[in-house]
Design a protein that fits this description.
With 545 residues, the chain is α/β, with parallel strands linked by helices. The chain contains 11 helices and 19 strands.
Length: 545
């Protein structure tokens, strides 16, 4: 019999495709034995979606139960040195659990921004051998002063931060009792570990390979972005260091009496694709497959610690990914070897198509979830908040988790849907709405990195209008656009999405404000809405909070 307040271990892969997990893909060219074992002991979800096809926004949706596009960030991801994206008043999953008596911790990649304390002198380029004339800073710098508009990205990140001073708003203030993180992805600066809001060292070198990495293909698969780095930082040791810390924190939690929530946002399998020596060559399809097997082994180690402590029946374990597989994996080469990380779905990371946001998703809770079960119901990563609230028998405030719906009926074996729809979001900020097997995309392209590259090389620019309608059970590859054949359905789905956006929520309750994209308030991706100007005018500025 499970306790009323179960422990929760949430393991989030970075850029892992649904087809990379062999229990989801019978044609996978390697076997993820630990995730497969977890699926045999729990439930697979085959229609599970991150809220975005990119990592920062999808993590926002996971932590808040709110669709990411309601935040000030309307497209792209945060630079590693950005201020915090999650609003200071917003209730998060860890804070909700902490208020319910849980011990909470995060170990891994954060990538939701941190309120760093900055140097009075500003960017210290000359101390790092850089010429300020060659690196002019934008007037409205991305990630500073409430500005979350990627067009103002500064290529030199993190040199204005005073690393001797603690972060003033980060994981600890958002509900985590303990945090050991990097600010962003494996390949992003600043290259320094951060424990409980304090940088573990002062960057003294300017390391890395490129200011602007090719994150669309595998041409720079093992390179990292240029940026400030502490002495002795070795990107190849980040994964094992964080796995060791995750196990240490887990052991500590298992030894105590209080229920706990451990969030492990792994750095794997994001680029640089650098599997450690024990896993090199294991997959037979190259470094990316080896990296997936390293992540799978890490999952197995964490699950084993829970089981060996006799805590299996009292612990909910969830394993999923933040978005689809990245082009850095070398997708054409992998497919030539018979391995498709997107599992037959069209597209990949950043795309509005299914391969951008349909994720592997496994949940184990012995005694509550039938072993070896499978749900084909539509769910979203934003559902974690409401699901845990129902597990604990607690209510959720009206101004929190506005897009979260409990999956607990599905965990208990219900075959009926818990959701009538899910909203997906592309790297470029475009929308798609799922209703049953119907999917309406409000973009003329995939609106990801490939679309940006094609537009820059003479192809058509993405337009944000209702443009693609697919019936996924008949057309899982999203090849047969039937938008002209179903005008009434298009009109109905358009009205549903407009209502979700305008009301500031997709669940019952009082209307809530969306947040403004400062400094301009631009939100061109909703121009198709009849109420677009009104919605933009009502949006709230985070910079004023």
């Amino acid at each position: 019999m499970a306790h009323k307040r179960p422990n929760i271990l949430y393991i989030l892969a970075d850029d892992l495709g649904q087809g990379d997990v062999s229990c989801f893909n019978p044609d996978a060219q390697f076997t993820t034995e630990n995730m497969d074992r977890l699926a045999r002991e729990g439930m697979r979800f085959t229609d599970s979606h991150s809220t975005s096809a990119l990592c920062t926004p999808s993590r926002y949706g996971l932590m808040t139960g709110r669709y990411n596009w309601r935040s000030p960030l309307k497209r792209s991801v945060l630079p590693g040195d950005s201020m915090a994206l999650i609003e200071k008043h917003r209730l998060t999953v860890p804070e909700f659990l902490r208020s319910a008596g849980y011990r909470t911790a995060v170990v891994g990649k954060w990538h939701l921004g941190l309120d760093w304390q900055l140097k009075d002198s500003g960017d210290d380029l000359e101390s790092f051998g850089l010429d300020p004339d060659e690196h002019p800073c934008p007037e409205h710098r991305y990630g500073r002063n409430g500005n979350f508009d990627p067009q103002h990205l500064y290529e030199v990140e993190g040199l204005d931060i005073d690393y001797s001073k603690p972060v003033t708003f980060g994981p600890d203030e958002m509900g985590f009792d303990y945090s050991f993180i990097t600010a962003a992805s494996l390949d992003q600066p600043p290259f320094v570990y951060i424990e409980n809001g304090q940088a573990q060292g002062i960057p003294t070198t300017f390391g890395g390979d490129q200011y602007h990495l090719d994150r669309r293909t595998d041409s720079q698969q093992q390179q990292i972005q240029k940026g400030p780095m502490v002495d002795g930082y070795d990107v190849a040791q980040v994964a094992p260091r964080f796995q060791a810390k995750a196990l240490e924190v887990l052991d500590d939690m298992l030894a105590a009496d209080d229920p706990w929530f451990l969030y492990v946002p792994s750095h794997l399998v994001h680029g640089p694709t650098i599997p450690n020596e024990p896993w090199q060559g294991r997959s037979g399809v190259g470094p990316y497959g080896d990296f997936v097997l390293q992540f799978d082994d890490y999952v197995g180690q964490l699950v084993s610690r829970v089981d060996e402590a006799g805590a299996a029946d009292d612990t909910i374990i969830i394993v999923t990914s933040d978005n689809g597989a990245s082009g850095v994996a070398g997708l054409p080469a992998l497919r030539a070897q018979g391995h498709d990380p997107s599992n037959g779905w069209r597209g990949h990371k950043t795309d509005i198509w299914e391969g951008g946001h349909r994720e592997p998703h496994i949940v184990r809770w012995p005694g509550q979830i039938e072993p070896g079960s499978c749900s084909r119901s539509l769910i979203s990563h934003s559902d974690l908040f409401a699901t845990i609230a129902e597990v604990l028998g607690l209510g959720v405030p009206d101004d929190a988790a506005e897009d979260s719906i409990s999956n607990l009926p599905l965990w208990r074996g219900s075959e009926g849907p818990v959701r009538t729809d899910v909203v997906s979001h592309s790297g470029g900020g475009g929308f798609a709405l799922r209703q049953g097997e119907w999917k309406l995309a409000f973009t003329t392209t995939g609106d990801g990195m490939d679309a940006d590259w094609e537009a820059a090389h003479g192809g058509p620019a993405t337009r944000y209008v209702p443009a693609q309608l697919y019936h996924l059970s008949e057309d899982p590859g999203e090849q047969n656009n039937v938008i002209d054949d179903h005008p009434e359905r298009v009109h109905m789905m358009q009205a549903v999405l407009e209502d979700h956006i305008a009301r500031g929520r997709s669940t019952p309750g009082r209307d809530q404000p969306n947040h403004r994209n400062d400094p301009t308030g631009e939100w061109s991706q909703i121009d198709w809405m009849s109420s677009a100007d009104e919605v933009r005018a009502r949006a709230k500025s985070q910079g004023l909070e």
